[in-house]
Amino acid sequence: MAQFTFEGTEEQERQLKEFIAEEKGEKGCLMPIMHKANQIYGYLPAEVQTMIADELDIPLAEVYGVATFYSQFSLKPKGKHRISVCLGTACYVKGADKVLDAVEKELRISCGELTPDRKFSLDSCRCVGACGLAPVMIVDDEVYGRLTEKEVKAVLDKYIKE
Amino acid sequence: MTIEELKKKSEVLADLIKVRRLVREQAEKLAPVTGYRKQVLVCGGTGCTSSHSLKVIEQLEKSFEELGISDVLIVKTGCFGLCALGPIMIVYPEGAFYPHMTPEHAKTVAERHLVKGGDIVKELLYEGTVHEDGSIIPFAEIPFYKHQMRIALRNCGVIAAESIDEAIAAGDYMALAKVLSSMSGDDVIEELKASGLRGRGGAGFPTGIKWATSKAAPGDEKYVVCNADEGDPGAFMDRSVLEGDPHCVLEAMTIAGYCVGAHTGFIYVRAEYPIAVERLEIAIRQAREYGLLGKNILGSGFDFDIEIRLGAGAFVCGEETALMKSIEGFRGEPRPRPPFSATSGVFGKPTVLNNVETWANVAPILLYGSKWFASIGTEKSKGTKVFAVGGKIHNVGLVEVPMGTTLRTIIYDIGGGIPGNKAFKAAQTGGPSGGCIPAKYIDTPMDFDSLKAIGSMMGSGGLIVMDEDTCMVDIAKFYLEFTADESCGKCNPCRIGTKRLLEILTRITEGKGRPEDIRRIRDLAEYMQSSSLCALGQSAPNPILSTMNHFLDEYEAHINEKRCPAGVCKSLLNYYILTDKCRGCTLCARNCPVQAISGSVKSPHIIDTTKCIKCGQCIAHCKFGAIIKK
User: Fold this and answer.
1) Cα B60 from Cα B42, distance rounded (Å)
2) Closest partner CB to B347 (pick from A27, A69, A133)
3) Which of A24-28, B88-92, B94-98 has the lowest mean pLDDT?
4) Across residues B37-62, what is the average pLDDT?
5) What is the model's pTM?
6) What SS3 class is residue B426?
7) Are B466 and B411 in contact (CB under 8 A)?
8) In chain B, N or C terminus with fewer CB closer than 10 Å?
9) How far apart are the first and last CA of chain B?
10) What is this model's ipTM?
């Protein structure tokens, strides 16, 4: 996978530091801070983790440990459109693996990767709780339910053509 | 607010809520008193909003403006349970049940039903609610709802999910008022013990004993925690409670705080549930405004407040010691027990930790008494259980039934059976930690002990139905992929064991299984069960062991005959041409990239399975459906 350079702005840094200043000293503040950083930057590259470690005066290893433990935190950037295919059990027994295959084929990336133009990132997730619509795929906040592998292209085309 | 003020408040909207609970005739009499001619309830849970129920609400508002309708109330509720029919809309006082709503349908219903003098739009009603003669069956009478008993979900789909006033009118906070005014902590704990309530998160530990241990534990600082890290893929009852009736959880946590002497509560909720998180934030804010959280609650002098902590996508954080590590801001790795959380939990302090559904059962027990609760269910499993029924079944959704209801009732009477007249093969309960229930045990009562006896478990209540097209080896592999991925890596038996088990299963599904694999799996599973640190590792082999116990023939077919009986495992499938369907058009032969198909024009072709690379080109090109995989 291609390397992406960090493109954080001063404004983003100011927002994060402000939040850290508010939370610092609270018991168990690291997780809320990481969530905030993830929300501001969309991912948690080494630069952002270093910022958090410095501000909280804790070892970078501790921040890195938390960042790599939870699947919601990513060290790699996400695409303009985030695609997530549900691989929960209810979706799986209804053919979610075939939907994921079709998306991978269509975008020519594997699950967990980003397209070179940064337009799409693809992940799988474990149950969004919309089991009545299984199998489901989520693009940004839009949920596409009762999908078949054949319908995947039409859904993606909408985003490719914009 | 004082208890008197709370009671007054509950009376303001009481009739409005009653209309939604009464049968049609009574509801129609009561409706005019409420100031609203009709009420339209639209599901605003995750399932229905995913299929655009919010656009239905927008359209209703627009139509009301155009049509000058001002005496019909629109209510955005939590989940109605029948997710397969979403988005769902129910109109009271008639109790008309409209499934699969679209903005266009909403417009039609507004114009023909909701206007003054309008009548039910029969062709849009759920077909199950219309008799052959055209008369309408109240939706509570249809099989899906008739066999249910709703305690934890009592207010879901009944009240406006973001309105504390409706929650209070529906009875929320009444148990808190009763406890603060007339019960001691010990009274409450005795009542819980007598009720027989057991934890709904999976382990089934008696709730009353948990609370009593925390109460007895020394320490002036204690905590109350709600486990809303619903990680079992396919289970969504906790999410629905939080989305549909968040106040019932806040109320129960406050009661626990009062009993054990805690003043702070944490709700640890999955970040993957944005609607639930938002509704909780709203509910906490409203409860603080009303003085139902914060200082001097209901004038009792008792202080309690609740904070939300977001999970970040780690299944192991549903395990209580890992969850508490995560609340403290660390990697969510479990630790050995004892000490148990009741004596040494969050920040090393005594902690009462229960799952969402357990919390949702507390208030009714205290309001209606332990005798009432203990009269429901079986000898050792009291009350009800919510199941999230999914997979190969008609009525995908949430089902709350008395403990001891049989699997058959849930699948056929409530669930409407299996689509496409396929045969029921097995149901998986307890998710990645549970096991499967094969068809021969379909009359097993669903309670903690009966499920354990047949090698499955209640778990959190996920229930995935599988039909004859499901390969049990593949399903076991699916769960192992999950646990191998989610193993936190702290202890060797789980970290290495899940990986090795997955390797063996992958090998089997690829046709490279060895005869000794079955014994290897059993040995490895036993080590993991006896030596893993937490429940994740101890229970990770369950899906394999139970599928192996009930479907050993499938494992043997994969290993010995290199054959997948359900036709799922790709590497084991072969392509065949049905001679009676093949017209000899030669299209398949011309498109086969490896020249594996032979035959002359207008006579049946044949595939050489030794040459075939299983690319599927022939099936894609055949116009007569003459090529099959098996």
Assistant:
1) 10
2) A27
3) A24-28
4) 96
5) 0.93
6) strand
7) no
8) C
9) 69
10) 0.91
